[in-house]
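Now read these lines:
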Amino acid sequence: MGKIIDAITARFHTRDIPKTIQGRFNALMRKEKGDTAKVAERLGVHRRTVQRYVKGDRDISKSKPEIVERLTQEVFKDHQPRVRAKAEAEAKQRGLYVETRARFGFTAAGETTDDARMRRLTEDVPEALVPELFEALRNGDEDKAREIVAEGLAREYFRERDTDGLRGLDVDFTDIDYIELDYR
């Protein structure tokens, strides 16, 4: 997926999604209890296409890359819901911190700037952002997760939680070398 989603998954999931495309397809079929219409809707293909995958007339691993990516995202959404819910509840209770080495900088109102440069940061994720981060994880949305982590780092790093100065702050958080998330 992406470095942030992978870091969250590595910390909070106990096992990976199926490795093969066929295994992922089978997992999605099991989740939808064999309902080809629901699987087709989730994959954005025709029901007949899913029926061909099931019957073996068509190989899903030879499908368009967009379909394979959608399959991976859909399987990931359903993967270990109880483990994810427990991790989210514990993160809300205990809090999270992020340790990263990435390009981090900001541009504030009035044209002031701290040019983005590689920094090693270890900061808490504000409690208000924890549910949003897990929602991004559920949706497999790397861009949203990056935005949330950047917002959290900005709040903690600049120590201006929810002030007017922070609202005008555009955070640049790119080129992630490594990132780890854990409970406080």
About this structure: Residues 142-157 form the longest helix (16 residues). Strands lie at 96-107, 113-125, 170-183. The CA atoms of residues 112 and 143 lie 25 Å apart. The chain has two domains: 18-78, 86-183.
